[in-house]
Amino acid sequence: MRKYEMALLLAQRYGYTSYLEICTSSTGFTFSQVDKQQFSRRVRLMYNRPPDFSDGEPTDFFTEDESGEKLFGELAQSGEKFDVVFIDPFHTYASSLRDIVYGLQLVKRDGVILIHDCFPPNAACTAPEYIPGEWCGVTFAAYLDTVLFRKDIHYVTIDSDYGCGIISMDNRLAHLSDSRTADDLVSQWSALNLVQKYPFFEEHHTQLLNLISPDDFRERLFGPLIPDTLEKTKNDLEAVQRDLLHTRIVLEHTQNSLKTIQHTTTWRMHERFHHISLINKFYLLLVAPIKRWMRSA
């Protein structure tokens, strides 16, 4: 499941129609894939953007600076807030934390924040500064430093597409996560410096992230199919198959009946009228001469 699919599922579940993407020119790559029919209002804020950048999609707020702080200020002053705020930051700790903090200010009270790269696959891609190639950086650390120490939010992380964290300011995500992370893990996490965080994270990521699979996410979001419903669907399909078979038999019977009727009708017409030619001959040879003799007499 990709990040834009998660955004769409959340929108379908909660009726969301506005979307803000916070990214850089080397992150994000989701704006063009977001469902335009579902999200009638789409806004993109991009920092660290080269002057010649273009991907065919509009960028509403952008800057070449490595920080998007001025852009966040402009957007915040407009007063607009969004149903879904998708964050794919420059993956340093400072940029990631800043983007998440501003995202919390720009999301509606009943909206959600979706954060990419919260579950890096290995230590090699968690360098704190940019490296070419696969780089998740330390966004996971900024994400956990936000969700583990705020009691006024709910969060869950989907184990897909480098891990996508979801934050809500209300309790709409409460049914998606089984429980909050144990206090002892939170205390141990808080005592670690940035360099020490990934080894601890690697060992305890399931509990720290409230990690669930994409299938669990979909099922918990929309509810499971009830066994009775599955059985009814099966029975309905079998009934349709029976109806189709019955219809086929009726059509074949009808076709055969038409052939029989056609044959019978043709035969009866032959039986009824095949003597006509003989009667004409009899009339011409016997009856017609007698009638002519009688008229002349």
Write up this protein.
This protein has 297 residues and is α/β, with parallel strands linked by helices. It folds into two domains: 3-222, Rossmann fold, CATH 3.40.50; 227-296. It is 49% helix and 14% strand. It contains nine helices and eight strands. The protein has helices at residues 3-14, 69-78, 93-106, 139-147, 183-190, 194-209, 214-222, 227-273, 276-296; strands spanning 18-24, 41-47, 61-62, 82-87, 107-115, 154-158, 164-168, 211-212. Strands 3-2-1-4-5-7-6-8 form an eight-stranded mixed beta sheet, sandwiched between helices. 31% of the residues are buried. The model has no long low-confidence stretch (mean pLDDT 86).
Structural class: alpha/beta
Number of domains: 2
* Percent helix range: 40-55%
Question: Total number of β-strand segments?
Answer: 8
**Element-level helix/strand string:** HEEEHEHEHEEHHEHHH
* Spatial shape: elongated
User: Numbering strands along the chain, what is their spatial order in the largest sheet?
Assistant: 3-2-1-4-5-7-6-8
The poorly predicted ranges are none
How much of the sequence is in beta strands? 5-15%
The end-to-end span amounts to 111 Å
Report mean pLDDT, rounded to a whole number.
Answer: 86
In CATH, the architecture of the largest domain is: 3-Layer(aba) Sandwich
Most strands sheet: 8 strands, mixed
Number of helical regions: 9
The first-level CATH class name of the largest domain: Alpha Beta
Radius of gyration: 38 Å
